[in-house]
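2024-03-11 09:14:02 DEBUG pipeline.ingest accepted 1 chain
2024-03-11 09:14:02 DEBUG pipeline.ingest length=264
2024-03-11 09:14:03 DEBUG pipeline.predict start
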Amino acid sequence: MIELRNVSMIFNPGTVNENPAISTIDLKVREGDFITVIGSNGAGKSTLFNLIAGTITPTSGSLHLNGLDISNEPEYKRARHIGRIFQNPLLGTASNMTLEDNMMITYRKGFKWLKRSLNKKMREYFRSQLIQLNMGLEERMRENLAMFSGGQRQALTLLMMVLSKPDLILLDEHTAALDPKNAEVVLDLTRKFIQEYRLTSLMITHNMSHAIEFGNRLLMMDKGEIILDIEGEAKRSLTVEKLVEKFHEIRHHSFENDRTLLAD
């Protein structure tokens, strides 16, 4: 699906502000993988996502999607294949547009070779999809999204991304800004959509319990390196305590981010 070969990222190279954000990384993401990514603040998680999405260009190395080198492909072109949801629930939708218009824009992205208009048939299709969210949004299709809560907008962003049929989705702490109840709803929808649509996914989380519970594979990052890549029975038998112990064994010091350790 996607492969990173000897990828590194150094910000401000050759200056007093030089920052080696990503050390040399080799990573293969298989089709159907659901990978959780965990690590302290500054570990390189979001930089890794920015490299995959094309927001930044690697200092060295190459990225390949479905066998094609996309290292120099701009972000807007990669967006046809890669969907991303950010922590801020307002970033995935247009506040000054109606729900149905937001969905139409996303739908056209997914089926860009077709000329489609927002007609009765399309509205019924959108309504049938919105019912999955169990939020009553199918009755609010002509309302502007400025009237919706953060949880509703993040759930809608997730649904719209699924409908655009991306090859890969990047979930960048997409529940961190939500209250616990809405975060649980969005996480449940995340698991449901990934399973039903067989999506290939990477999900950053600060919550070790979620990193263990979700997905078939777990990556732990520290100081720009992937220090742990675990899956299968080894992942299923993990606990938060075992994960912290593994960090200690590899790095020989304590895990630095209390927010991760204290997450429940």
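2024-03-11 09:14:41 DEBUG pipeline.report The CA atoms of residues 93 and 157 lie 7 Å apart.
2024-03-11 09:14:41 DEBUG pipeline.predict end
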